[in-house]
Design a protein that fits this description.
Length: about 400
C-alpha cells in the first residue's frame, strides 16, 4: 500500500513530450505504473497525484475531499495560484452548504433551455467576426480575431459588462492564469479586477440592465464584494476556457485531416465531435486540486487527513480503461464520459454555454472557410504551457 512516506516519483508541473496535445509523459507513466502516487510541488511540498478516470471520479464525488483552498494542506500549483486563492473566495473554492447556496443563485442562468435560446445571437456574433476577419484578406490570427472575441462578447452580454473594456479584463486574466506570475502581480491584477467589478456592480444598483450582475443585485442576498467575486469568476472562466478550446480544436483538426474531412462531410456530428475534442485536449492540464478532510482509502493508497491531491483530468480523459486508443482523436467516439468539465458538485456550471459556443464556432469556421489551413509550419505554433488554461498564443491561418 502506498503511504505518505513514499519519496515523490514525479513533479508538478512535469515536462511536456513530443505531442503538444498530450499530457506530460511522466503522468501517463504514473497512470500505468502507480496511478495514485506522490508528487513534489513547486514549493517543495508533496501531494498525491491521481491519474485514473475511476479514481478521479471517486475523489471529485467524495465530500471528504475539500475544494476549500484555505484549508491546511491544500495543494497550490504555483506561487501565483496560492495568491489567487487567498483573495475574495468564489463558490468553486467552497464546500457545501455554502457552495450550494451560492451556486444555486446562478444555476438558472445556465440551464440548457435558457442557453439554447442564445443560439441565434451567438451565431450572429460568430458570423460578424468572420465577416470582419475575412474581408479583403486571405490570412489572420484566429485567436485574436475570432476565438478570443467570440466568448468575450458572449460573457459580456450575459453579465452586463461593457465589451469595450475587454482589453483590460483579458490582460488581468492573463496575469491571474500565468503559472509564473509573481504573488505581487497576481495580487495587483486581482485588486484591479475586483475594483472594476465592484464599481460596475454599484452602477447596476441605480442603472440595472438584463445582465446577470443586475439580477444578483436585485436578489438582495449578496454584498457588492460577493457579487464582484462571482463576476470575476464568470468573466475570467467564461472567456479564457472557450477561447483556448476553440483555437486548440481547430489546430487539432488541421493536424488530423481525416477527422476534419469527416466533420466537413457530416456537420450534424459537430456536437459529438465537440465532446471528443474536449476529451482529447482537456485544456486544464494542471489538474483539479483538493485536500482530504479525513483519512480515505483510494485505489490501494491511504490518503490521510490534511494531504492534498491533484486530479490529473488530462490523463483520466485518455485512460485506456475508459477510452480505448485514448491518444487518438476519433470524432466518431462516444466521449460523453469525459471529465473535461470536472465531476460531482463542483463540475463546471457554464458547460452548456461552453458546448454551444464551441459547436457554433467550429461549425461556422468549417462552413465559412473551406480552404482553411495553417499559415505557418506547425513547429512554429507557440503553446501556452506557462498558463493554467492550455492553448495557443496565436493561430495563424489562411484560406
Amino acid at each position: 500500500m502506498a503511504t505518505a512516506a513514499h519519496t515523490p516519483r514525479f513533479t508538478h508541473p512535469a515536462a511536456r513530450g513530443a505531442c503538444p496535445f498530450a499530457p506530460p509523459p511522466a503522468y501517463r507513466q504514473a497512470q500505468q505504473e502507480e496511478p495514485i502516487s506522490r508528487i513534489s510541488l513547486w514549493d517543495g511540498s508533496t501531494s498525491w497525484l491521481i491519474t485514473r478516470h475511476e479514481d478521479i471520479k471517486a475523489v471529485l464525488a467524495d465530500s471528504r475531499f475539500s475544494a476549500d483552498a484555505t484549508r491546511p494542506g491544500f495543494p497550490s500549483i504555483s506561487a501565483g495560484a496560492r495568491q489567487l486563492n487567498s483573495g475574495q473566495p468564489t463558490f468553486i473554492r467552497m464546500d457545501d452548504p455554502e457552495h450550494s447556496r451560492l451556486r444555486r443563485m446562478l444555476t438558472g442562468e445556465f440551464v440548457i433551455k435558457k442557453v439554447e435560446a442564445l443560439r441565434p445571437e451567438i451565431q450572429r456574433i460568430a458570423d460578424d467576426l468572420l465577416d470582419h476577419m475575412t474581408e479583403g484578406r486571405t490570412s489572420a490570427d484566429l485567436v485574436r480575431e475570432f476565438a478570443l472575441p467570440l466568448p468575450s462578447l458572449v460573457i459580456c452580454l450575459l453579465l452586463g459588462v461593457p465589451y469595450q473594456d475587454h482589453a483590460f479584463f483579458q490582460e488581468c486574466s492573463r496575469v491571474l492564469l500565468r503559472r509564473d506570475s509573481s504573488p505581487e502581480d497576481v495580487s495587483a491584477a486581482q485588486a484591479r479586477l475586483a475594483d472594476y467589478l465592484i464599481e460596475l456592480t454599484d452602477t447596476k444598483r441605480t442603472q440595472p440592465d438584463d445582465g446577470i450582475l443586475s439580477r444578483l443585485v436585485a436578489r438582495g442576498e449578496l454584498s457588492t464584494e460577493e457579487i464582484g467575486a462571482m463576476g470575476r469568476l464568470l468573466l475570467v472562466a467564461g472567456h479564457e476556457t472557450t477561447a483556448n478550446m476553440t483555437a486548440l480544436s481547430v489546430l487539432a483538426l488541421l493536424r488530423n485531416p481525416d477527422q476534419l474531412a469527416h466533420l466537413r462531410e457530416h456537420p450534424e456530428s459537430v456536437p459529438g465531435a465537440v465532446e471528443e475534442l474536449l476529451r482529447y485536449l482537456t485544456i486544464v492540464h494542471s489538474g483539479l486540486t483538493r485536500v482530504a478532510t479525513e483519512d480515505v482509502e483510494l485505489g490501494g493508497a491511504r490518503i490521510r487527513a490534511g494531504e492534498g491531491v491533484v486530479c490529473m483530468i488530462s490523463t483520466a480523459n485518455r485512460d485506456e480503461q475508459e477510452f480505448p486508443d485514448g491518444d487518438e482523436l476519433d470524432l466518431a467516439r462516444d466521449a460523453r464520459r469525459h471529465l473535461a468539465f470536472g465531476f460531482g458538485v463542483h463540475q463546471c456550471l457554464g458547460q452548456p454555454l461552453a458546448r454551444l459556443e464551441l459547436q457554433i464556432a467550429l461549425n461556422t469556421v468549417l462552413r465559412r472557410l473551406p480552404e482553411l489551413r495553417l499559415a505557418v509550419p506547425f513547429e512554429e505554433i507557440s503553446f501556452r504551457g506557462e498558463m493554467l488554461v492550455y492553448g495557443v498564443h496565436e493561430l495563424p491561418i489562411a484560406w
